[in-house]
């Protein structure tokens, strides 16, 4: 069962490929603008194009009647500029959206930085660089001067909305922004000096070495945990095979194993599952530790170079949020699994549970794990979509639309889920029960809210949607009955036959190998039918759950030996042949004929 392809055997590489694909997808969407651009609801017919339905662009904040946007240089936010609120960005008219103004200011700053993609290929003098404030048309304007510029370069104009947003006068706000811009430009020039570039390269190399060392340590630990997990899986598979054999022998064969051996096997099986769950959680945390190290290291490396800081912010932030949501939802899912297993183990230790209770607990636990996994990842997906501005702030509309789609296209699925919930609530059957559903008979192997899987007597795995289960015949609950019919010859001594049968049943009930399975040996014993083929004697014996077949087979074997010992013949058809003289073939002329 372990001879699988390499890509299936190595869970680490499978996780790694999924992570890389997620990163590539998020980076591609970031660069193409598919994520950062909001969902334009105005393109959907029938929806109003008002400020209530239009989400704000990324980075734009609304405060009263003003909107603000950040001004960034080399990935660092300097300050926020403001403008009057734009109700309809598809038709702004004479209004200038704040995000357009902010982009223009950032472009003016980037043109002054040497080596930038928007640079005018000029080199500013760090010693003579100066940002000044001049008044034009009654508005403070920030200019950049130095020895290399033939004329001052305008950067931005401080407007009345800027002053209102900052709660300062325009002149005071202009002076504050002047100091911020001058410091930012000087720092940008310093970081692009040859000495600073060499230091940035050295920092990137140190980060890379640290990443490789930590990755090696975590990778070795991950590999050791993988080997331990493989050993536990092999042991668990062996235990499951033994447990399945014991169940099959207890249900379908004349096994002499006492029922008590199956109960400790179930407890040991649950203990191995909990240990395996811990190892899987450890490997999962180690894997995400490696991913986190590479993500943090990549972010620090990109942030070390001023040219890539903006790229690091735009490209790294979204993948980090995607992976963070994936990690948190997965961690919550696994911790919940561990909590459920731990709770079951505590329940086993606190009270004496029967085998049926253990089966019911295992069945409900499996269904709960599957249901909570769907809920956790659904909540994580909705939260991520809202964070990416791909859905409106209120999810009521999305929920109503989803409910409509489900009600129209998934009616059968809803029926399956409701009926599956009722099956669990009413405890109609459990995993391991022998049931008859319609014309299907077998042992329940899997049960969740949607489907039920049954292993038939021929070994076929049958899958049934829960909505099709309307009537269940559970043959493994509380107690069972062995219904045995024995037909003896018509001329046999009926009282002798009943006495022999009663003695045989009593001996079997007193046998230590079968006494624990027989609950009532005297439930029914009598003549059920008389016909030309013989006399039918019916026997009812109340047995332990799922033991009726084994009891019936063993009783028939013992009755055959007892009948042979007391010369009691089984029933055979009686026929009479007459010749033309009115005599049968075996009758002499002096004997009367039989009629």
UniProtKB/TrEMBL annotation:
InterPro entries: LSM_dom_sf (IPR010920), MS_channel_1st (IPR049142), MS_channel_C (IPR049278), MscS_beta-dom_sf (IPR023408), MscS_channel_2nd (IPR006685), MscS_channel_C_sf (IPR011066), YbiO_bact (IPR045276). Keywords: Cell membrane, Membrane, Transmembrane, Transmembrane helix. Coiled coil: none annotated. One of its GO terms (molecular function) is mechanosensitive monoatomic ion channel activity. It is found in: Cell membrane. The chain crosses the membrane at residues 201-222, 284-305, 311-332, 370-388, 394-414. Residues 412-477 form the Mechanosensitive ion channel MscS domain. Residues 483-570 form the Mechanosensitive ion channel MscS C-terminal domain. It is a multi-pass membrane protein. Residues 371-411 form the Mechanosensitive ion channel transmembrane helices 2/3 domain. The keyword Transferase does not apply. SUPFAM superfamilies: Mechanosensitive channel protein MscS (YggB), C-terminal domain, Sm-like ribonucleoproteins. The keyword Membrane applies. One of its GO terms (cellular component) is plasma membrane. Belongs to the MscS (TC 1.A.23) family. This is MscS Mechanosensitive ion channel. The lineage of its organism: Bacteria, Bacillati, Cyanobacteriota, Cyanophyceae, Gomontiellales.
């Amino acid at each position: 069962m372990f001879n699988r392809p390499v890509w299936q055997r190595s869970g680490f590489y499978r996780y790694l490929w999924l992570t890389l694909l997620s990163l590539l997808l998020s980076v591609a969407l970031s660069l193409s603008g598919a994520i950062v651009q909001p969902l334009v609801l105005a393109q959907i017919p029938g929806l109003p194009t008002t400020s209530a339905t239009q989400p704000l662009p990324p980075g734009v904040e609304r405060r009263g009647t003003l909107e603000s946007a950040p001004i960034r240089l080399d990935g660092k936010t300097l300050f926020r500029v403001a403008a009057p609120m734009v109700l309809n960005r598809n038709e702004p008219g004479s209004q200038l959206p704040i995000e357009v103004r902010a982009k223009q200011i950032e472009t003016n700053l980037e043109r002054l930085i040497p080596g930038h993609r928007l640079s005018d290929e000029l080199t500013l003098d760090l010693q003579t660089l100066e940002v000044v404030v001049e008044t034009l048309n009654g508005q403070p304007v920030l200019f950049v001067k130095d020895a290399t510029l033939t004329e001052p370069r305008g950067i931005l104009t401080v407007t009345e909305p800027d002053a209102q947003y900052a709660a300062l006068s325009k002149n005071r706000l202009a002076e504050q922004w002047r100091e911020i811009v001058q410091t930012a430009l000087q720092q940008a020039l310093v970081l692009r000096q040859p000495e600073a570039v060499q230091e940035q390269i050295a920092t990137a190399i140190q980060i890379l070495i640290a990443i490789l060392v930590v990755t090696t340590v975590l990778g070795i630990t991950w590999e050791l945990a993988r080997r331990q997990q493989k050993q536990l899986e092999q042991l668990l598979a062996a235990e499951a095979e033994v447990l399945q054999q014991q169940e099959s022998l207890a249900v379908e064969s004349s096994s002499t194993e006492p029922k008590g051996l199956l109960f400790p096997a179930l407890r040991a099986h649950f203990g191995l599952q909990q240990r395996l769950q811990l190892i899987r959680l450890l490997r999962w945390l180690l894997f995400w530790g490696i991913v986190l190290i590479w993500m943090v290291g990549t972010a620090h490396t990109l942030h070390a170079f001023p040219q890539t800081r903006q790229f690091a912010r735009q490209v790294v932030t979204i993948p980090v949020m995607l992976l963070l949501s994936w990690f948190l939802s997965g961690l919550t899912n696994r911790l919940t699994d561990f909590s459920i297993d731990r709770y079951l183990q505590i329940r086993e230790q606190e009270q004496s549970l029967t085998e049926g209770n253990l089966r019911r607990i295992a069945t409900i636990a499996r269904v709960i794990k599957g249901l909570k996994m769907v809920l956790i990842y659904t909540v994580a997906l909705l939260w991520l979509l809202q964070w990416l501005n791909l859905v409106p702030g209120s999810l009521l509309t999305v929920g109503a639309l989803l409910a409509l789609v489900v009600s129209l296209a998934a009616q059968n699925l809803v029926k399956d889920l409701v009926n599956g919930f009722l099956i669990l609530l009413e405890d109609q059957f459990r995993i391991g029960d022998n049931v008859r559903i319609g014309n299907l008979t077998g042992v329940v192997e899997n049960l969740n809210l949607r489907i039920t899987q049954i292993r038939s007597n021929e070994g076929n795995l049958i899958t049934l949607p829960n909505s099709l289960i309307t009537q269940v015949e559970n043959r493994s609950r509380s107690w069972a009955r062995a219904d045995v019919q024995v037909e003896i010859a018509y001329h046999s001594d009926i009282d002798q036959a009943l006495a022999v049968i009663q003695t045989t049943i009593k001996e079997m009930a007193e046998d230590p190998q079968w006494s624990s399975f027989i609950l009532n040996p005297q439930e029914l014993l009598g003549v059920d039918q008389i016909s030309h083929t013989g006399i039918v004697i019916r026997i009812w014996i109340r047995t332990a759950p799922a033991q009726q077949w084994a009891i019936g087979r063993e009783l028939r074997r013992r009755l055959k030996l007892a009948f042979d010992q007391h010369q009691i013949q089984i029933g055979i058809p009686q026929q009479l042949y007459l010749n033309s003289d009115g005599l049968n073939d075996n009758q002499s002329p002096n004997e009367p004929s039989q009629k």
